[in-house]
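Help wanted!
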Amino acid sequence: MALPDWALQLGYEGLDRGLIPDFIVRIAIRALLRQRLREIDHGSLEANNAAKMAWIKSVKQRTCIADVPEKSNEQHYEVSTKFILSTLGPHAKYSACLFPTGNESLEEAEILMLESYCAKAQLQDGQDVLDLGCGWGSLSLYLAQKYPKSRITGLSNSSTQKTHIDATAKLRNLTNLNIITADINTYDFPTTSRFDRIISIEMFEHMKNYQILLRKVSTWLKPGINSDSESLLFIHIFCHRSTPYHFEDTEDQDGDQSNWMAQNFFSGGTMPSHDLLLYFQDDLTLVQSWYLSGTHYSKTLEAWLKLQDQNAETGLLELQADAKAKGQDPTEGVKAFYRFRVFYMASSELFNFNGGQEWGIGHYLFKRA
Ligand SMILES: C[S@@+](CC[C@H](N)C(=O)[O-])C[C@H]1O[C@@H](n2cnc3c(N)ncnc32)[C@H](O)[C@@H]1O
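Answered by r_m:
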């Protein structure tokens, strides 16, 4: 049964003003997660498999790679850099970190995950590497420092991310790094730019047609001369254990604008299933895949929430100034602050559900087909 409009409205206003205690927010989130699991379960393995095949067919029929990329910039990637960085670890990694014992600091967990990419993607000094969806430079800056003879290219659709990475690279005297601001829907590299490794960390969840995307990305890999010099694509996504679904930024059957996550943080977003990319091997072949428990991501998000709270005073001022600079009322900045808190909490609860075995992280290594 859906809540009446007035109750939803009251709840959302309370969330926007930080008036609802966290433990109540978390209880509500867990109830919504159970509802989501009921919605994606069609009752039998046969029915669930048929639904997955239909879902995959429908995304292959879409004409563009990603929907509404400008919305993800509004919702995350061009939000005040100072604010976002005040909630992240020192490497500004805006994706899951690795907590093998659970006792690591956020910085240690950032480095452990970054190092795991170097090992799994078989990185070596001297390679041409593309960091696709480079965020605020967590991987690009790390690789530029670790592999001084490599040429690192980062690509994202956010101009404020480029400003931050370029400034940090200058401070660290890194000259082997080039950041490009472009939308993957339309961008193509000149044929003179080809890569030994392409690494993409949590960008694919903003995508829809993985067939066109992987075709395009496959053309950016250098043709290998032999198996020792094979070019590779490494992908990190968050995922559901079995079922892909869309984050729908639309009204539900009763006309309620109830999909808070899609509206505020994930318009045009996708929850891939762990096996989703295996159905898109037209131009690339899977070498290996890994599943990592969602608890790693939950711990990451709890660390971000803690930092956001520790830096609340400056974070609130920063977001109010950002709203004003964008021609909005400063109260929009206050709303954004509390919405980020709920976003971190909701995502942490999702990845912690069923001990991290329901939603988690997928790693994949592909070579050219
Ligand atoms: C969740 S962030 C991950 C950032 C970074 N890889 C990290 O791990 O810290 C997703 C990244 O994908 C980029 N992105 C999303 N949609 C895009 C698009 N249509 N074209 C290019 N980049 C996009 C965002 O700008 C952002 O940099």
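OP: Thanks! One thing I noticed: The chain has a mean pLDDT of 93.
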